[in-house]
Write a structure and sequence with these properties.
alpha/beta; 8-stranded mixed beta sheet; Alpha/beta hydrolase; AB_hydrolase; about 280 residues; AB_hydrolase_1; 10 helices; hydrolase activity; Rossmann fold; hydrolase
Length: about 280
């Protein structure tokens, strides 16, 4: 028995050593560059199965999506990229940013990857891009899970402390290098954008999950307004959660994403059939 225990311990120890941490965002064996709209866009690919695209937030990168990559690569073919000017993707000096530019990059990337009917999980700015892809490129998208997105500028859509904090930070900066100027331009995008007419989303028929936290930076009423503007959507609020639940509680977030993507989407009636007599 003692020898058996020693053997089992050795196997477990070897298994732990034999599985090094994957350097998501810096993984040369999974990474590739694509020429997209005048820039080089960096993409990593993992797993096999139905395609799933993961889109990070403002100032983020592939590395920020590591908890979702590690989970979904077991059952899906996961594509994750650095948006223009983020991570390892390049930028055009002096360019101002808006969400139309970023969304067009992602649309061209989907074409370059030769994938369609793709599911998308977008977090924060990635959630905005996911909504725009569903609106503007519906023939390429399966479902969209959009977390912590906004469709109006921060002063109308976010906690007031965020809007004032971003403005204060931007005004305090004196960027000198091209990279510093680019990073500040990305941050400035939060002040003036996005700025979309909610009515332009009324005809979106792709199944979309609009999700947020009860302590999110995005105002709950704003998230609810996004949900109500969509033609075929569901709404989910994570209790005791903020904007960063995909980092803080990845298992909880991944469970909801997985459920939405795997379960057939069907809008529920107000009441079961046997109680319809209660409705006018």
């Amino acid at each position: 028995m003692k020898n058996l225990l020693v053997l089992l311990l050795s196997i477990l120890t070897f298994s732990t050593i034999a599985q090094p941490k994957v350097p998501y965002g810096q993984n040369k064996s999974a990474g590739k560059y694509f020429q997209i709209n005048g820039i080089k866009m960096y993409v990593e690919t993992y797993g096999q199965g139905k395609p799933l695209v993961l889109i990070h937030g403002n100032g983020g990168s592939i590395e920020h999506m590591k908890n979702q990559i590690a989970h979904f690569k077991k059952t899906r073919k996961v594509y994750v990229a650095d948006s223009r000017g983020h991570g390892k993707s390049s930028f055009i000096e002096g360019q101002e940013y808006n969400y139309d530019i970023l969304t067009k990059d992602w649309a061209v990337l989907l074409d370059s990857l030769k994938i369609s009917n793709v599911d998308i999980f977008g977090w924060s700015d990635g959630g905005i891009i996911g909504l725009l892809l569903a609106r503007d490129y519906p023939n390429r998208i399966g479902k969209v899970f959009s977390y912590g997105a906004n469709l109006s500028p921060s002063k109308d859509a976010t906690d007031p402390k965020l809007d004032s904090g971003v403005r204060k930070f931007v005004n305090s900066q004196e960027p000198k290098t091209a990279t510093e100027k680019n990073n500040l331009a990305i941050m400035k995008m939060m002040i003036d954008y996005p700025n979309y007419d909610f009515k332009t989303f009324n005809q979106v028929k792709i199944p979309i999950m609009v999700a947020t936290g009860d302590h999110d930076l995005i105002l709950l009423d704003h998230s609810l307004k996004i949900y109500r503007s969509l033609g075929n959507a569901a709404f989910h609020v994570f209790g005791m959660a903020n904007h960063f639940i995909s980092w803080d509680e990845p298992a909880r977030m991944n469970k909801e994403i997985e459920l939405f993507f795997n379960k057939p989407f069907k809008q529920k009636n107000l009441v079961p059939k046997e109680y319809e007599f209660l409705l006018e």
